[in-house]
């Protein structure tokens, strides 16, 4: 299985840099561990950022020992997009395992993985996803399996959500 990463230092294609329309549906996978205090603000910001026409769902994969799952369930009722929570009693694989469980359950064209602590700005979700969609339409990218990732640990990176392409 190969993984390709978008380099933040790659030449910029002007067509891809411009805002594009996203084609397809999106699942936002949000791994959580004791993030009850961030859930409401995260969902509020996603509600402001996500266009009404975007078929999207939010899946929290939760390994918390606090009341985060209950907070998610209560907050979900206030949003126009589906919000669900998968609480894992045993956090097999930690953060990576949570992402894998979310990917297994997602049934959409696109997957975006983002942190619940707001270090990945929710307002970047539509453009990040649309740019990945545009790249997929205009080139032989993506290969059979690929991950588009950029995060605060990458040199020169801004913290942005990471669109993930489902295997073809």
Helix-strand layout with pairing:
Blueprint: H1 14-17, E1 26-32, H2 36-49, E2 56-62, H3 68-76, E3 83-87, H4 94-105, E4 110-113, H5 125-138, E5 146-147, E6 162-165
Parallel strand pairs: 1-2, 1-4, 2-3
Antiparallel strand pairs: 4-6, 5-6
Question: How would you concisely characterize the structure shown here?
Answer:
With 168 residues, the chain is of the alpha/beta class. It has a single domain (14-165), classed as Spore Coat Polysaccharide Biosynthesis Protein SpsA, Chain A, CATH 3.90.550. It is built from five helices and six strands.
What is the straight-line distance between the termini?
A: 12 Å
SS summary, helix count: 5
Record the strand order, biggest sheet.
Answer: 3-2-1-4-6-5
Shape: globular
Largest sheet: 6 strands, mixed
Oligomer state of the chains in this structure: single chain
Mean pLDDT: 76
String of helices and strands: HEHEHEHEHEE
Residue fraction in strands: 15-25%
Rg for CA atoms: 16 Å
The CATH top-level class label: Alpha Beta
User: How does CATH name the architecture?
Assistant: Alpha-Beta Complex
Number of strands: 6
Family: Belongs to the glycosyltransferase 2 family.
Protein name: Glycosyltransferase family 2 protein
Pfam family, one: Glycos_transf_2
């Amino acid at each position: 299985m190969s993984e390709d990463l978008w380099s933040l230092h790659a030449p910029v294609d002007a067509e891809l840099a411009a805002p594009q329309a996203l084609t397809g549906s999106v699942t936002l996978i949000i791994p959580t561990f004791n993030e009850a205090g961030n859930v409401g603000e995260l969902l509020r910001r996603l509600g402001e950022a996500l266009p009404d026409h975007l078929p999207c769902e939010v899946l929290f994969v939760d390994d918390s020992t606090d009341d985060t799952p209950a907070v998610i369930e209560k907050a979900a009722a206030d949003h126009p997009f589906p919000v669900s929570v998968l609480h894992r009693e045993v956090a097999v694989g930690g953060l990576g395992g949570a992402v894998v469980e979310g990917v297994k359950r997602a049934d959409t064209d696109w997957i975006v993985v983002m942190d619940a602590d707001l270090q990945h700005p929710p307002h970047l979700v539509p453009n990040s996803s649309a740019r990945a969609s545009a790249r997929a339409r205009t080139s032989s990218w993506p290969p059979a399996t690929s991950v588009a990732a950029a995060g605060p640990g990458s040199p020169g990176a801004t913290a942005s959500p990471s669109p993930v392409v489902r295997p073809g």
